[in-house]
Write a structure and sequence with these properties.
heterodimer, A: 263 residues, alpha/beta, six-stranded mixed sheet, four-stranded antiparallel sheet, 10 helices, globular, disordered N terminus, B: 337 residues, mainly alpha, MetI-like fold, two-stranded antiparallel sheet, 14 helices, 2 strands, 3% strand, ArtM/GltK/GlnP/TcyL/YhdX-like (chain B), transmembrane transporter activity (chain B), transmembrane (chain B), membrane (chain B)
């Protein structure tokens, strides 16, 4: 939400995507995507289903390995390291350490059903050795309270509504104090009346100055929180800019067609 | 009015506490208390079929108890002799050892089979293929005759100097041979059970753990296996009971398990039937204990999987007894309604 003119120039970009290509079998999913996200901004990725939005997001934290190109988060290449003028694949443990600095919120929450809410949120800081069990649980309580579930810390995920589960998933992502949080269609699996509670949590994060990259179909929400809209079509970015331009005066025919269908 | 047993299948309202008797016309203050009462349907066919089944059961029981050939006094006489109890102990020990070792090896095989390394994957597949493709008895006979294949066993470096050499027959007694043979066979099945359990866990769980920076082994131990246990435990319980009874096959190797122990006795006194009955009753007793244990292990791993678990039979009994006592009290108390 904040304008980042001078601050952004001083710091490296939060996210940089350099010419990423990705194939699934014989199908090209990402076709030379390049993108820069300034720190503290909110970027919303739009596009029809199958346009490569989710894949792009999963490439950002190396859940998918790109066939060509690479991604940097906070100036650090993800999954690879520079050696001379080539990139070498990192060891598993190094990739995991990088991932723990990137928050990821899944469409289907993917909470751990056999753990209480408290343990769901506290698991990662303990596992990565950042906090003691005690500290992690204190933090987890704090974060659950922040997403409005401070009174349900002992409950199991399946005892909650979808909206509540997604709020827990956001708290779980926040527990690692990530520099960037990626949201993969965070409200697509929710009943319409539950969408609002999740969006309001994301809105708080957006105004709080965390860098967010969000894949969503909620155009109204995108208009409200986004600093930058990226429109993806068949694995390419066809249009990009502030919501006022991309959503209200789209230039590319694909963007116009998409918006006329969803608005 | 119908008898309580007639209406026991009419579902009580879900809100009612589990122990409350289902038949209590119109609890006070319930909505529609003035509506005409519903008279439950009578299940005549059900009553008749139950009576017929009970009659057959009674006839079988009477014939078993009154048949002199069972020689129940001999059963009682041998049931707790030290020879039988020693045999039972060895059977239990064998079952426990084979189950633990089999599942340890089986888990390793399952992880190999699911790994990204094609060599490990193929080896694991080949192991399971071999050990599931041959009868257990044949395998045991092979292990029993291993001394013919490898007369000596040596400890040393591969193709290097030997540090330690031992005669195979001296190292491997019948009991150890039985443990090895049963374990190798068991592990092939355990591998498939564990693999199935791991595959039953939503891949999103592994992805979420990866996204949080959890290592592969921690993801497996903390996230995947606890959830896989839900589908592993029922099958493993089944296997445990199978293994308990399956150990009786080692009696052909002259291992003094429960079956072989009673065989030794009846080979001397020719009281075959009552002594087989002794073994049978012990197998049933142990299996019963194991089934009860399995029920509770399953409940443990079911936590978080549904909004609430039904009460255990013991809890149900306790609630029912409390309800019965309250009703008795209400009847016997002076001025009770």
């Amino acid at each position: 939400m904040t304008t980042t003119g001078i601050a952004a120039a001083a710091r490296p970009p939060a996210v940089e995507v350099h010419g990423v290509h990705k194939w699934f079998g014989g199908r090209r999913v990402l076709d030379g995507v390049s993108l820069t996200v300034a720190p503290g901004t909110v970027t919303v990725i739009l596009g029809r289903s199958g346009s490569g939005k989710s894949t792009l997001l999963r490439v950002l934290n190396h859940l998918e390995k790109p066939e060509a190109g690479h991604v940097s988060i906070g100036g650090e290449p993800i999954g690879v390291r520079r050696q001379g003028n080539r990139l070498r694949e990192l060891r598993e443990s190094a990739i995991l350490a990088q991932r723990s600095r990137i928050g990821f919120v899944f469409q289907n929450f993917n909470l751990f059903p056999h753990l209480t809410l408290l343990d769901n949120v506290a698991a990662a800081p303990v596992a990565t050795g950042r906090l003691s069990r005690q500290q992690a649980q204190t933090l987890a309580r704090e974060l659950l309270t922040r997403v409005g579930l401070g009174d349900r810390t002992g409950a199991y995920p399946r005892q909650l509504s979808g909206g509540q589960q997604q709020r827990v998933a956001i708290a779980r992502a926040l527990a690692l104090r990530p520099g960037v949080i990626l949201f993969d269609e965070p409200t697509s699996a929710l009943d319409p009346e539950l969408v609002g509670e999740v969006l309001s949590v994301i809105r708080d994060l957006a105004t709080g100055g965390t860098t967010l990259v969000i894949v969503t179909h909620e155009i109204g929400f995108a208009r409200e929180v986004a600093d930058e809209i990226v429109f993806l079509h068949e694995g390419r970015i066809v249009e990009q800019g502030p919501p006022a331009r991309v959503l209200d005066r789209p230039e590319h025919p694909r963007t116009r067609e998409f918006l006329s269908r969803v608005l | 009015m119908a008898t309580p047993s007639d209406v026991s299948d009419v579902p009580a309202t879900p809100a009612a506490p589990a122990g409350s008797p289902p038949k209590r016309p119109g609890p006070p203050g319930a909505p529609g208390a003035d509506a005409p009462p519903v008279v439950p349907r009578r299940h005549v066919g059900r009553l008749l079929s139950a009576a017929a089944a009970l009659l057959v059961l009674a006839m079988v029981l009477v014939s078993v108890v009154r048949n002199e050939a069972f020689q129940w006094e001999v059963v009682g006489q041998y049931f707790t002799t030290s020879a039988v109890l020693d045999g039972l102990l060895l059977t239990l020990w064998l079952t426990g050892a084979v189950m633990v070792l089999g599942f340890l090896l089986g888990t390793l095989l399952a992880v190999m089979r699911l790994s990204a390394n094609p060599v490990l994957r193929t080896l694991s597949w080949g192991y399971v293929w071999i050990f599931r493709s041959t009868p257990l008895l044949v395998q045991l006979l092979f292990w029993f005759n291993i001394g013919a294949l490898y007369p000596t066993l040596a400890l040393g470096l591969p193709y290097g100097p030997r540090l330690f050499t031992v005669q195979t027959v001296n190292l491997l007694g019948p009991t150890l041979t039985a443990v090895i043979g049963l374990t190798l066979h068991e592990s092939a099945y355990a591998a498939e059970v564990v693999r199935g359990g791991i595959l039953s866990v939503d891949p999103g769980q592994t992805e979420a753990a990866q996204a949080l920076g959890l290592s592969r082994s921690r993801t497996l131990r903390r996230i995947v296996v606890p959830q896989a246990m839900r589908s592993i435990v029922p099958t493993a319980g089944n296997m445990l009971i199978g293994t308990l009874k399956g150990t009786s096959i080692v009696s052909v190797l002259a291992v003094h398990d429960l079956l072989y122990s009673v065989q030794l006795v009846y080979n001397q006194n020719y009281r075959v039937i009552p002594l087989l009955m002794v073994a049978t009753l012990w197998y049933i007793a142990v299996t019963t204990v194991l089934s009860a244990g399995q029920y509770h292990v399953e409940r443990y791993y079911a936590r978080g999987t549904s909004r609430g678990l039904p009460p255990t039979p013991l809890q149900r009994l306790r609630v029912r007894l409390t309800g019965l006592r309250a009703r008795l009290h209400a009847v016997t108390a002076p001025g009770g309604r």
